[in-house]
């Protein structure tokens, strides 16, 4: 399958087919509109089909686009995008090793704030702590966003929490169109988004910085959107899920990623303008582990205590048995 719309005529034909998708457009009408022969139109239509668009062709009536199964590609993602920064510059891969690695290379070569990388599948999807991120084709979202905030490097972990709020809000919006039953997403510190206590999305934040300034941050977001449980390795089936598994409905990845970028932009701008407090409040509203006894696995020790929530800087607060309040900077939380 070809990946990009190579000519502006193909883009224009596609736009027209989308606008008129309720009826057929004849080869003759298209040929007149674009001032090219019917054979040239046919060749462009063939190229558009090769990009994954479902176009019905009838010798008597002409061409009609099936809008229900639009392919996941850069053209579709950027066409309806309402952001001003995030995703305005976007590169799309059918298959990548890791979108985070690509975004880091692009950022090192000067890619600007909000530049985004999207892949339909990843061969070496990376999770936190050197883990692997399952990245099959055709079902999920794998994206990495370059940010260049003027904040001290020590505050960079807050960007994971900014992103977690944006992801949770997006998931919540797409879970709400089910019939009656509406599961709510929750967050697990620092980077997981869960539905019905099972992991549905994760965030991998990587940074390139000097002692006192950030060169760039890459926010990698993986969301299990339409993945069937059987696509997961057996050991993950009890602890991971997808939106479709929990909501019962197939979700448009194009709508999802456009909404995700919009929410990401909203929360990131708010963070830069008003600081961490609004993020802390929003994050805590998705945090349902408060009051529960949790364990935090760190490199060299395990801390146990009752989860309280985020402190002013984004650390997780735990009340230990002896009454001591522990501020968790890093680690893996489990109930
Ligand atoms: C985690 O929960 O451990 C983090 C998972 C992050 C996965 C995403 S998918 C897009 C981006 N590219 C990667 O290689 N990883 C992140």
Short descriptors:
single chain, seven-stranded mixed sheet, alpha+beta, five-stranded antiparallel sheet, 14 strands, 335 residues, 9 helices, binds biotin
The order of strands across the largest sheet is: 3-4-5-9-8-7-6
Oligomer: single chain
Secondary-structure-derived class: alpha+beta
List the helices and strands in order.
HHHEEHEHEEHEEEEHHHEEEEE
Q: Report helical residue fraction.
A: 25-40%
Strand content: 25-35%
User: Largest sheet at a glance?
Assistant: 7 strands, mixed
Mean pLDDT: 94
Q: How many angstroms does the end-to-end distance come to?
A: 45 Å
Description of the molecule:
The chain is an alpha+beta fold and about 325 residues long. About 30% of the residues lie in helices and about 25% in strands. It is built from nine helices and 14 strands. Helix 1 (about 10-20) packs across helix 3 and helix 6 packs across helix 8 (about 255-275). Bound molecules: biotin. Biotin binds near residues 125 and 144.
Provide a concise account of the structure shown.
This protein has 335 residues and is of the alpha+beta class. The chain is 31% helix and 25% strand. The chain is elongated.
What is the topological layout?
Elements: H1 8-19, H2 27-34, H3 38-50, E1 55-58, E2 62-65, H4 74-79, E3 90-96, H5 99-108, E4 116-122, E5 141-147, H6 157-175, E6 185-188, E7 192-195, E8 198-209, E9 214-223, H7 243-247, H8 253-274, H9 277-286, E10 293-297, E11 302-310, E12 316-319, E13 325-328, E14 332-334
Parallel strand pairs: 3-4
Antiparallel strand pairs: 1-2, 4-5, 5-9, 6-7, 7-8, 8-9, 10-11, 10-14, 11-12, 12-13
Helix pairs in contact: 1-3, 2-3, 6-8, 6-9
Bound molecules: biotin.
The site of biotin (BTN) has 21 residues, from α5, β5, β8 and β9.
């Amino acid at each position: 399958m070809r990946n990009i719309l190579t000519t502006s005529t193909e883009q224009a034909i596609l736009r027209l087919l989308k606008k008129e998708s309720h009826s057929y457009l004849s080869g003759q009408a298209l040929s007149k509109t674009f001032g090219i022969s019917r054979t040239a139109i046919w060749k462009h239509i063939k190229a558009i089909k090769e990009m994954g668009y479902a176009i019905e062709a009838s010798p008597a009536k002409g061409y009609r686009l099936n809008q229900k199964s639009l392919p996941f590609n850069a053209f579709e993602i950027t066409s309806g995008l309402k952001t001003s920064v995030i995703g305005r510059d976007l590169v799309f891969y059918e298959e990548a090793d890791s979108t985070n690695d690509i975004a880091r290379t692009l950022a090192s070569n000067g890619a600007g704030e909000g530049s985004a990388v999207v892949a339909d599948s990843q061969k070496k999807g990376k999770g936190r702590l050197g883990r692997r991120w399952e990245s099959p084709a055709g079902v999920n979202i794998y994206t990495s966003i370059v940010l260049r905030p003027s904040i001290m490097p020590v505050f960079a972990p807050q960007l994971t929490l900014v992103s977690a709020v944006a992801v949770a809000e997006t998931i919540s919006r797409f879970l709400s169109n089910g019939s009656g039953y509406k599961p709510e997403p929750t967050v697990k510190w620092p980077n997981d988004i869960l539905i019905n206590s099972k992991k549905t999305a994760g965030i991998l934040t990587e940074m390139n910085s000097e002692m006192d300034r950030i060169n760039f941050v890459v926010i990698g977001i993986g969301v299990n959107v339409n993945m069937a449980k059987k696509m997961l390795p057996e050991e993950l089936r009890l602890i991971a899920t997808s939106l479709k598994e929990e909501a019962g409905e197939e979700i448009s990845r194009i709508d999802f990623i456009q909404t995700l970028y919009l929410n990401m932009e909203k929360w990131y701008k708010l963070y830069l303008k008003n600081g961490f407090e609004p993020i802390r409040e929003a994050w805590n509203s998705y945090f349902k582990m408060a009051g529960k006894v949790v364990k935090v696995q760190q490199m060299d020790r395990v801390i146990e205590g009752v989860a309280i929530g985020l402190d002013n800087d984004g650390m997780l607060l735990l009340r230990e048995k002896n009454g001591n309040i522990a501020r968790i900077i890093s680690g893996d939380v489990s109930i």
